[in-house]
Amino acid sequence: MKQLLLIMSVTLLMTAPALATDFVTFEPVADCDGFAVDLSIHYATYLDAVTLEYMVTAVDVDGVEVASIAETTVLECAVSTCEFTVDGLFEPALEGGPFTVAGTFTLTDVWGTPSQAFSIEVICGEPPTGWCPRTPGYWKNHPENWPVATLTVGGIELTQDEALAIFATPVRGDATVILAKHLMAAMLNQAMGAEDEVGGTVDDANAFLELVPVGSRPRGADKQEALGYKNILADWNETECDEGDEEEKSAAVESASWSSIKGIFN
């Protein structure tokens, strides 16, 4: 009897994947009016419909939820794989921004609970203007003010926590670390609508960090190239602001004084 039960269990485990239902493709878009997701689903042979539950929210730069859409729908299909478009409108439409539109989609009543998620930044109307560039120290100490949820540095998408970890990393003579800090600060300043004077340098620095990754401690020509990009970005990030409270100025001072650490590279 024990042997029979073992054989039956093994048979079940071997056949379960063939019975599984899951997402095949998942392609989301979002804007100020709402969202749409083009998706395809593989159906297990014993199914002709699955239940899809999804939640989509829009959050402002302060982390406040300004819109949400939660729905449950049944997706029917008579063949093994079918394509669908799931969409929704924000009521009212988003204005201003930037906003983070994020969604989670889950198939229920099937083998496991397959899910997919997305996060997209949107700005509704003209980007904010008049933002005075802030330093790496400011952005490290004010994560609640970040206008985006992720940053792509050297071809690698970083979450806010991952980017904050780089901001907190001691330089210790590594030119790629100080470059990454000023690059991320410049990208955040751009997203806030600061008058862009360093767009080309941001692109060049990102291309450089794809070839010479953060933390690689380059020497020679690569080190000098990294410091060249850093100097341009630092000059812009450390622009003296005419306005701002004392807390912001103190945070800026923490990172603005490149002279206090540049001796490391001499």
Secondary-structure blueprint of this entry?
Layout: H1 2-19, E1 22-30, E2 34-42, E3 49-59, E4 65-76, E5 81-89, E6 96-108, E7 115-124, H2 136-141, E8 150-153, E9 156-159, H3 160-167, H4 175-191, H5 199-211, H6 220-237, H7 246-256
Antiparallel strand pairs: 1-2, 2-5, 3-4, 3-6, 6-7, 8-9
Helix pairs in contact: 4-5, 4-6, 5-6
Question: Overview of this structure, please?
Answer:
The protein has two domains: 22-124, Immunoglobulin-like (Sandwich); 136-265, no CATH class. It has helices at residues 2-19, 136-141, 160-167, 175-191, 199-211, 220-237, 246-256, and strands at 22-30, 34-42, 49-59, 65-76, 81-89, 96-108, 115-124, 150-153, 156-159. Strands 4-3-6-7 form a four-stranded antiparallel β-sheet, with no helix packed on it. A three-stranded antiparallel β-sheet has the order 1-2-5, with no helix packed on it. 34% of the residues lie in helices and 30% in strands. The relative contact order is 0.12. α4 packs antiparallel against α5 and α4 (175-191) packs parallel to α6 (220-237). Residues 1-19 and 243-266 have low confidence and may be disordered. The chain is α+β, with helices and mostly antiparallel strands and 266 residues long. The protein is elongated and about 65 Å long. β6 (96-108) and β7 form a beta hairpin.
What is the compact description of this entry?
By secondary structure, this protein is an alpha+beta fold. It has seven helices and nine strands; from the N terminus they run αβββββββαββααααα.
